[in-house]
Design brief:
148 residues; alpha+beta; Ubiquitin-like (UB roll); two-stranded antiparallel sheet; 3 helices; globular
Length: 148
C-alpha cells in the first residue's frame, strides 16, 4: 500500500496498479467477504490500515472491530479461520472484497455459516418483517465463546 489515504488524480486510483485504499474518517474501509467456492456472502466487516496489511501479509482475514475497538484475526476465538484466496478493491478503492476459504464451516459469531441468515419478507403491508433462511447453526456460540 502506498499510503493510508488515496490521493492524486482519480485515474491513479481507478486505473493504477498500486493499492491506495481510501479509508473513511474513522480510518476504516468496508470489507465484503464471500466464499471463494460458491460466491455466498459470508459477512461484511471493516478493516483499518493494519488489518488490511496483516491480511495481505498473512493470507488470513484480519478485521477491525468497531464495537471492541481492536484488531482481530477471524477465527482467533472460534478456530474458524478465513484463508484468503483473493483480495479485490473496488474502482475508487473505498471497499474491499475478500474471497475466502472458510475453515470450520461458519463465518458468523452466532454460529451460522453466513451473517446473512434472515431475509426481509417482501410485499405490501409486510412492514419490515424478517424470516430465517439458511439459519442452521454450525456451532453453539455459548460453548465456543463462553457466553450465554
Amino acid at each position: 500500500m502506498s499510503s493510508s489515504h488515496a490521493s492524486g488524480p482519480a485515474s491513479d486510483v481507478e486505473e493504477g496498479l498500486v493499492l491506495r485504499p481510501k479509508f473513511d474518517a474513522n480510518g476504516l474501509v468496508t470489507c465484503v467477504t464471500t466464499d471463494a467456492g460458491n460466491g455466498e456472502v459470508l459477512m461484511v466487516a471493516h478493516m483499518n490500515d493494519e488489518a488490511l496489511r496483516r491480511t495481505i501479509e498473512s493470507g488470513e482475514a484480519w478485521y477491525f472491530s468497531r464495537s471492541r475497538r481492536r484488531l482481530w484475526r477471524k477465527g482467533e476465538s472460534s478456530g474458524h479461520v478465513q484463508r484468503v484466496v483473493e483480495l479485490r478493491v473496488d474502482c475508487d478503492q473505498d471497499a474491499i472484497w475478500l474471497r475466502v476459504e472458510q475453515q470450520g464451516g461458519a463465518a458468523c459469531h452466532t454460529g451460522r455459516r453466513s451473517c446473512f441468515y434472515r431475509a426481509a419478507v417482501l410485499g405490501e403491508g409486510k412492514g419490515g418483517a424478517l424470516a430465517f433462511t439458511d439459519a442452521d447453526r454450525v456451532f453453539d456460540p455459548a460453548q465456543v465463546y463462553g457466553k450465554s
